[in-house]
C-alpha cells in the first residue's frame, strides 16, 4: 500500500499523513464489507423477507478448505436475487462441521426467530456430505427447520443427466477420447498450438480453443469445444496432413497425426460431430438459462419441459447441424475435405441418444437426490416426496398450466394452501388473492398473491452464484497474494460481488463510522486528522484511491 500511496501523491491526491499501512487498508476493507452486510441484513430481517441459502465447498490456492455461502432474497422490495454472503474456513469437511459453520455464519446476522420463520429453502450441489439421507447437511438443517425446502442445483443435475447418457449410449466414449487427445496434443505443446494457428491464418479462419468434452466442467464448455472443431475442421485437417508428412518429425509422431486425420475425415466422425453439436447447443443454452440470477423454479420447469420436447423431436427430425452433415455425407465432402469410411469408429445412434437424453432429463431434473443415485433407482419418500409435491403445487399458480375452459372457483386452492404452509405465508389471504387471480385470468396480480409469488421466486434454481464467488476468490487470491486470511478474503469478495462501482460509491458514511469505531470510542483522536483528511479527499475526488491494488480491483 505505501507504494500505491506514493503514486497517488504524485497524482496530486491529498492522502494525509497517517493510516497508510497495509494493516489499516485491511481494516478499512473489513469495515466497508461489514457496513454493507449489516445494511443488507437489516433490510432482510426488518421486512421479514424470505431467505434461501446456497452453499458450495472448495479449496483456496493456499490449500484451505472453505465454504462459500450465498443468499437469495428480495432486497429493497425488488425481485428476489442471489448474492454472495460469506466465505467460511472449515475445520473439517464432514456434514457436522459444515452444518456447524453454516449455522454460526447465519447466526451472526440473523436471529433464530427470523430463521425459523423466513429461512424457506436450501440449495447445494449433489455431494453426499450435502444431501446424505441420514447425516447430510440438508438432513441436519431440516431437523432444525422442518419446513425447509431442499433443492439440488439444476446445473449439477443437468451434468449428471448428461453423464448418464454417456454411460448408456455406445460411441460417446470413443468421441470423448478423441477430444481428449486433441486437448492434450495442443495444450501440452506450444509448438503444436503455433503450427495450428499458422494453418488457421493460411485459410483465413479464427482459431478457437479446443477443450475436453463431457468432462467435469459444465456442458457450455463442451459445446465450445465441439464448435471449435466444427469451425476449424479444415484447419485441423491441414495441420494433421502437414504434420503427418513432415519428415522432421519422428515416425511415431507422424503416425499419431495420420491416425488423428483418419478419424477426423471419416464420415462416422462427422456424423457424430453434427449430432453432438446439435445436442450440446441445446444443453448449453439450457445450462446458461439456469445460471441466471433471476431464474425461478416455475420458469426453469417450463424451460426443461420445452427442452425435452425439442429432444423428442430430434429423434425423428434432425437438427440444423445434422442436416448439414446429411448434405455433406451425400456429397462425400465436408468443408472442402473429402470424407471416407472408417470401420473402426462407432456411430452414435441418433434415436437412442436423444431418447436416453429425454429419459435422463426427466428422471434427474425432478427431485432432490444425491449425485451418485438416479431418481429412477429409488422411490421418493419423506422429505423428497414432500419437495416433489411442492414442485407440482407451484405449477398451479402459473396461468400457463391452467385448463382453457372456465376454472372452478376452488381450482388450485389445496395446492396453494400447501405452498403457504411450507413457505410460511398467510393462508386465507393468499387463497382469496388466488381466487381473484383466477377470475381475471392473471390479467393483474392481486396484492394478496404477491407474498406467495415472491416466496416461490426466492427459491434458488442453481448454485452458479457460488461458482462465480469462487472465480472472484481466485482472481483476488493469486499466487503472490496467498497470505490473505479467509475472513479478509471474504470481505474482498463481498465488496467485489455486492459493492457499487467506484463512481457510485460514497465513502463518507463508512469512513465516519470507521473513525468512531477505531478512535473516538477509545478516546484516542491522534489519527483523526489523517483519517478526516483521507475522507475529505475521497469524498471530493469521488474515488477510493487510497486503497491498495487488491481493493481497487475488487470494487468496480
From TrEMBL:
- Please name the InterPro entries in this protein's record: RNaseH-like_sf
Name of the protein in its database record: HAT C-terminal dimerisation domain-containing protein
Specify the species.
Answer: Pogonophryne albipinna
Instruction: Provide the taxonomic classification.
Output: Eukaryota, Metazoa, Chordata, Craniata, Vertebrata
